[in-house]
Amino acid sequence: MTTTYSLGVTGLIPGQSTNKLYDIPDASLDGNSCATPGGMQGTMSTGDLMLVKGPDGANHWYKYDAERSTPTNPVLLFIGP
């Protein structure tokens, strides 16, 4: 499965400057939508992982921070490489 980033949704990492945006993929690890508001809600409720592209172009696993995220300001928690 190829990870795509066509929706252009970006998220932030707690404690980092706002000019470092992380590209959120169109689908989560389970293949469910995670970039639309409804998809974000579903991904947050299940704690599903996403392969997020960082500002340096590297991909790492993240999940949404369900307590701090909103559809317009997604906050990401680092899981691992």
Explain how this protein is built.
The protein has one domain. The protein contains one helix and five strands, in the order E-E-H-E-E-E. The model has no long low-confidence stretch (mean pLDDT 90). It has 81 residues and is α+β, with helices and mostly antiparallel strands. The two termini are 18 Å apart. The strands form two sheets. A three-stranded antiparallel beta sheet has the order 3-4-5. Strands 1-2 form a two-stranded antiparallel sheet. It has one helix at 37-46; strands at residues 10-11, 22-23, 50-53, 59-64, 76-80. The radius of gyration is 11 Å and the shape is globular.
Main β sheet profile: 3 strands, antiparallel
As a percent range, the share of helical residues equals 10-25%
Q: How many helices in DSSP terms?
A: 1
**C-alpha Rg, in Å?**
11 Å
Report the order of strands and helices: EEHEEE
Tell me the span between the first and last alpha carbons: 18 Å
The average pLDDT is 90
* Assembly status: single chain
Stretches with pLDDT under 50, minimum 5 residues: none
Number-wise, the strands total 5
Strand order of the largest sheet: 3-4-5
How many domains in all?
1
Structural class: alpha+beta
User: In one word, what is the shape?
Assistant: globular
The fraction of residues in strands falls at 15-25%
